[in-house]
Amino acid sequence: MILKKFFFFLKGIIKTIFRFIFWIFKKKIFIGILAGIVLTVLFNVGIKYSSSDKFCESCHVHPHSTLSWKKSGHFDNKSGVTVHCIECHLPPSGNYKYYTEKARLGAQDAYGKLFKDISKINWDEKSTLNHAGSYTYDESCIHCHENLFPIGLSKKGEDAHLYYTRKTDEILCINCHLYTGHYSENARQEFDFGQKPTEAKIIYKKPATVTEFENYTEYIPNSSVKFDMIAIPGGTFTMGSPDKEPLRNYDEGPQIRVDISPFWMGKVEVTWDEFEAFYAQTHVEGRTDTQIQLVSTDSDVDAVTGPTPPYGNPGQGFGKGDRPAITMTHYTAEFYCQWLSDVTGKKYRLPTEAEWEYACRAGTEGAYFFDGNPKKFTRHSFWNRMFGPDTATINSYIIYKENSMAKTQPFSSTKPNPFGLYNMLGNVKEFCRDWYAPNIYMTYHNQGSIKDPAGPESGKEHVIRGGSFNSDAAYVRSAARDYTQYNKWMRTDPQMPKSLWWYSDVVDVGFRVVCEYDGEE
Hints:
It is a single chain. This protein is an alpha+beta fold. The chain has two domains: 54-187, Multiheme cytochrome fold, CATH 1.10.3820; 216-516, paralog of FGE (formylglycine-generating enzyme), CATH 3.90.1580.10. 33% of the residues lie in helices and 9% in strands. Strands 1-2-5-12-6 form a five-stranded antiparallel beta sheet. A hairpin with a 6-residue loop joins strand 1 and strand 2.
């Protein structure tokens, strides 16, 4: 009987324990559910708050965010509909990419806010297409602009959007609409491009008369434009870079000895003043790219068909005047030289690659025409990325990524090389007349002594030299080589056929001219 009562008591204790455990278990589930609800609410509140315009402004205090946004068509428009920061700078909500990109960008913003001096950040560079393309999303654009052919869309817009639908794997919306969300003067079409000045200026009637091999000033007839040409004496130099030069590329060797005949070279790159004189005298309205008349000495200059109007703002808002002309094609540069030859009676052309490097080096043999080690100047090293490159010397001679403010600069902002030429390295890359071949130096090397080489007989792309305002110090060395990339540089041009005259997707290439010398020094 006693044993039976004990088991009955034990059974009751066990039931009580299990009931208590079950009660606690139920309470924990409830607490868990309650905690989950609270966390979800807090998460959504945090996501909403951290996605507000006010929160974005707390980190992005530079004028390219709030001020330029409020001047843009996404804020100031007839409909009164405001497009908020996250609607462009995050993918559409509702999928995992929205949260992963929010985490990525949030981490970058937090790091910048905590550890960077915003006064030292180059905000102009941050507004360029190369940078902006990483912080906008095509799917966000399409999410709002589902109809790419709305009523009232211009013919130009129809052509561009039709082209986009066929190239969605190659083109981003921001390629053409960079300044839609943040207003910039760069977006303004300069309708006065190439027009003759209205203010009173001296109009030159005749070109310069040159009788000696010396520096001279050329005058463009029927314009108020003049420019300086520097006499480059002939000589022999070592072309290319040695194997041990820091940051060299494989196509810069083997080094070769080259004899160069004397010639004249433009003191600076062809400026907008010079190019606009050409455009004003030769341009045509509308598209006539299939009806081109090449310049000849027998033609009437006023009747020559020249460039068609640019599709956008060719100066990119960088400024014109004595800044280098940009965005014209290699074809246009050659056409300009033919026209200049015609109106002056001299033999102007693009430099050969050998002439360009000879003039750039001006008797020097180092990586630059001034003393300096590329390793100290470049950001392509962990140390320099952390603590900054040495800019004390190079800033005096070259307009490049570290000092350009992401745009071209007037030539007078740097010192010339020993020949008296400005901006041979930096500011804008410069067209050469040679076709590009990566192994051309080996071909020259096998020929022994070579005089006035002019490159391969044919090719697909042309050589460009000198680096630009977008270039790291590694790419503005005297021997650094580059080449045109026609398909890439015309990617967003929707015109059919594409323009012969203007590149649509490169903003840092220009050119300078040489003039042939037929006599003896």
